[in-house]
Every structure is written in C-alpha cells, then in structure tokens.
Design goal:
Elements lengths: L28 E3 L2 E5 L5 E7 L10 E11 L6 E7 L2 E9 L2 E5 L4 E4 L4 E5 L4 E7 L5 E10 L10 E5 L3 E4 L2 E7 L1 E2 L2 E2 L9 E7 L4 E5 L5 E8 L2 E3 L2 E3 L4 E4 L5 E6 L5 E8 L7 E3 L2 E3 L2 H13 L35
Antiparallel strand pairs: 1-22, 2-3, 3-4, 4-11, 5-10, 6-9, 6-11, 7-8, 7-10, 9-12, 13-14, 14-17, 15-16, 17-24, 18-23, 19-22, 19-24, 20-21, 20-23, 25-26
Length: 328
Amino acid sequence: MSNAETEPAALTCGAAVEDGRSAEKPRVDVLTAREVPLGGPRALTVRRTLPQRSRTLIGAWCFADHYGPVDATGTGMNVPPHPHTGLQTVSWLFSGEVEHRDTLGTHALIRPGEMNLMTGGHGIAHSEVSTPATTVIHGVQLWVALPDRHRNTARDFQHHVPDSVRVDGAEIKVFLGTLAGSASPVRTFTPLLGAEIVLEPRASVTLTVDSAFEHGLLVDSGDVRLAGTVLRPAELGYLPCGTDTLTVVNESDAPARTLLLGGPPFEEEIVMWWNFIGRSHEDIVRARKDWEAGTDRFGTVEGYPGHRLPAPALPNAVITPRGNPPRR
C-alpha cells in the first residue's frame, strides 16, 4: 500500500532485558490512530498507528495501517502501481479479496487468513485492487524496515496461509515468527512476530513470548485488556522488551480480534518518506528521481488498467532520522 505521509525512525531497548528478568508490572503505552487517505484520487481512508511521534517502530515494524470494514461495492480498494525501497510489506485481510500485481511478474490474490509478504529491497513496484466479488474490505497493511546490510536486497514475494491454533479461549494464526507452538516458514531479515488473535467473549489467554522482543497489540474489534490496560478498537498497546508472558483479556460480550506484533528493538537509524526507506536524505531523493524517471530500478507492473502513482513533491527541508523518546 502507498504511504502518503513522511515519518522516519530509530530505536533502543531499555535495561529490562539486560538482567534477563521480566518486569512484574509492565507499562503499556496506548497509541491512538489518525485517519489518512491513500491511493490517489480514489483514496481509501485508513487508521494509522505507526509511525507516530511517540513511537516510530516496534521491533522492525515501522508502519501499520488498519482499514475497514468499508463498503467495496463501489470503488473499494484501488491503489495504482507505486514503488518501495528498503522494506518488506505485509498484507493481512479480515474480509474481502485483493488482487496483487508487482514488477516480479507476480499476480496473486489475498483472502482472509492469508498473508502476502513482498520484499522491496533495492526497488519494487506493485498495485493492489479489491476484486469485483468483494463487498466489504477490511484488513491491515504493515511494513518492516530492512537492516542496512539487506536494504538493497533483490525483489521477492511470499504467500502463506497459517494454520489456526487454539489456546484457552483464543484462536491464533501466526503469519510471522513463532507463538503458541506455531511457527511461520516465511523468510524475514530480522526476528519478527506477527499473529492474529481472536478471543471468545470474556475469554483470557496468557502467552509465552520472547523477553528480548518489544510488542504491540493492535485491536480491530472489542475492548481488550493487555497487561492491565484496556485498549479500544483501532488503538495499539506497546510493551517494551523484558516481558516473557503476555495476558490478553476480552472485556467484551462479543468476540474480539487483535494483531500481535513483535521483534527485538531495531537499533539502526532510518529515514522514511512516502514509500521509501533509506539511511539519508540523498537516498530518498535518488529513489524518487528513479521512480519519476521510470528507470529499471522499479520495473513495470503489467496488467493494471491505469496509470501508476506519481511521487509527491519532496519537502522543502532535509529529511532526517528520528528515534523514539528515551525510556523512562
């Protein structure tokens, strides 16, 4: 998906994991979403929780857009071909069906409970269009920052359909990493966790997690308590590293759906603008110039019935890295 904003990042982990102990009462920071239109003239409005000024990454997760449910019988989702560098995109649907095309020649569909992961390394472009059969579109689009030694890696695309695992009153689908005895085979360049957790009404589940990871819980539906803090729909609760168990409680009388994201703190500084991740202002300028010039760096998306998305104008300032605020 195309990012219409400019937000950079960097990160450090607190001392909580240095002595190997879990915090008895971990503090949950609640991140609220802001609405952002994306996709050009037929924009789809999304709720963006990452990046923002109070937190720019959770592990290597650097971007989280949450959209729908919205009526897709009109235009639905229609994101023209657009470029990416220095990242991996992760697409996950709750309802609907989306057609993906990219400059690898990939033509793939994604449906609820399935994951598409695209590696944008040195440069790739893709389009995303909801299919005519889609009446409601609802899901998330996530980005992962590539570490410096891999940020110019070759284009790649992976599709995965995780099995469901039941733990207490929860159904869990692990699309990246390992949780609840389930492991994803999908290749990433840093350790990551990505899982959908659906809780039955009033259910509670305690999960063993990696204490070297920081975690974020994004709530799609229901009121959910994470480590004692209630999160409402479209809110994301952040927990620093140092915790080896997470307790998630559905405070609602209906099922609650969440996404759990995690990874070790990403300690490199990055610069993120539009759909590009680099390490300097010059990286961004070069990527934009290559896209506007139609160079081979990004290739051509075949089969999309329309024009590609033009890059916005660069800001009248040097784009610099920005990290998370110091831990208290």
